[in-house]
From TrEMBL:
The keyword Transmembrane applies. The chain crosses the membrane at residues 155-176. Residues 218-230 have a biased composition (Low complexity). Keywords: Membrane, Signal, Transmembrane, Transmembrane helix. Residues 1-29 form the signal peptide. Residues 218-237 are annotated as: Disordered. Coiled coil: none annotated. This is TNFR-Cys domain-containing protein.
Length: 286
C-alpha cells in the first residue's frame, strides 16, 4: 500500500512537471498595462502587445476592457486600401476600417473582395512586435508555425507519457490488489479446510466418547443386574463353588433325598454328598 501511494505521488509530480514544461517555453510577459505597448496596440491577458483591432475579436485585454487606441494609420475607420492599414497585421475591410488579418480570413470581407498578401497563410511578412496568431495561417509569433508544431508535439509526447505512467500505476495497483485478494482467499479457504477437518475429527472423537459411555452404561447395568441376582441367590441359600458359580445346596440335597436310592448305590451317594458338602464347607449331620 505504501509503495502504491509513492507511485501515485510520483505520477502526479510528473504530470505537474510536464504542465510546467509545457508553459515554460512561452515568451515572457512584454507588458503589464496598455500604455507599455505601442499606440495602436493593447496588452492582452498573457502580457503580450497586439493590434488594438484584435482586442474586440479575442476579448482578452489584461484589464478586461479594450483601450481606445489613437495614432497611426490604423486608427478609426480611415482606409480605402489594404496598404493604408498596418502592413503585416491588418487589412482594410468593406466598411473602410482596418482590422486584424483574422477577420479577412474568416469573413472574407476585404475592401476589394480580397485579402492582402501578408494575411494569407503563406505570408512571410514579419513585424517588430509579436503578431496575434492568424487562424488557419502558419504566420505567427515565435511559438507558432513550425515552432508551435514542435512545441505541440512535445506537449503531446508529454501528455502521452503521463497517460502511460498513470495507466501503468493503475494496472500495478489493480494487480497488487488482485494478488492481495487472492492471498486472502487462499488463506480463508485453508482456514475453512482446517476448521472442517478439526470439526470432523471432533465429531469422530465425540462419537467414540458416546460409544464408550454407552458401553460403560451397559456394563454398569449388567453389573447391577448380576449383583442383584447374586444377592437374591445368596438370600435363597445358594453358595459359590470353586468356579464362582452358585449352587443350590439345599435344593440339591432335597432332590437327592426326595427319591430313595437303591441299596447298591446308597454308599456311593452318601460319599458323593459328603464330598460335595465338604468342598463347599457345609456341615452336615452324620
Amino acid at each position: 500500500m505504501v509503495l502504491l501511494r509513492r507511485v501515485n505521488m510520483a505520477a502526479m509530480l510528473l504530470v505537474v512537471m510536464v504542465a510546467v514544461a509545457a508553459f515554460a517555453g512561452e515568451a515572457a510577459a512584454q507588458c503589464t498595462a496598455h500604455d507599455e505597448c505601442a499606440e495602436d496596440e493593447y496588452c492582452d491577458a498573457l502580457g503580450g502587445c497586439f493590434p488594438c483591432t484584435t482586442c474586440v475579436v479575442y476579448h482578452d485585454s489584461i484589464t478586461g476592457a479594450c483601450p481606445v487606441c489613437s495614432g497611426g494609420p490604423a486608427a478609426g475607420i480611415s482606409c480605402t486600401t489594404h496598404e493604408q492599414c498596418f502592413t503585416g497585421r491588418q487589412y482594410c475591410d468593406s466598411t473602410g476600417g482596418c482590422f486584424a488579418c483574422q477577420g479577412c480570413l474568416i469573413l472574407d470581407d476585404g475592401v476589394d473582395n480580397t485579402c492582402p498578401d501578408w494575411c494569407t497563410p503563406d505570408s512571410t511578412t514579419t513585424s517588430t512586435t509579436n503578431p496575434r496568431v492568424i487562424l488557419g495561417s502558419s504566420t505567427g509569433p515565435a511559438y507558432s508555425g513550425s515552432g508551435s508544431s514542435s512545441h505541440g508535439t512535445e506537449i503531446a509526447v508529454g501528455v502521452v507519457g503521463c497517460v502511460v505512467v498513470v495507466v501503468a500505476v493503475v494496472v500495478a495497483g489493480w494487480y497488487v490488489r488482485r494478488m492481495k485478494r487472492s492471498e486472502e482467499k487462499n488463506f480463508v479457504d485453508m482456514t475453512r479446510a482446517l476448521a472442517a477437518k478439526e470439526q470432523a475429527r471432533g465429531s469422530i472423537l465425540a462419537l467414540s466418547v458416546r460409544r464408550d459411555q454407552q458401553r460403560q452404561s451397559q456394563l454398569s447395568i449388567l453389573a447391577q443386574q448380576q449383583q442383584s441376582q447374586n444377592q437374591r441367590r445368596h438370600s435363597q441359600g445358594m453358595e459359590l463353588d470353586e468356579h464362582g458359580e452358585y449352587i443350590d445346596v439345599e435344593g440339591l440335597h432335597r432332590s437327592h433325598t426326595a427319591r430313595a436310592p437303591a441299596p447298591m448305590d446308597q454308599q456311593l451317594y452318601d460319599d458323593e454328598f459328603l464330598e460335595l458338602a465338604r468342598e463347599i464347607g457345609v456341615a452336615t449331620d452324620a
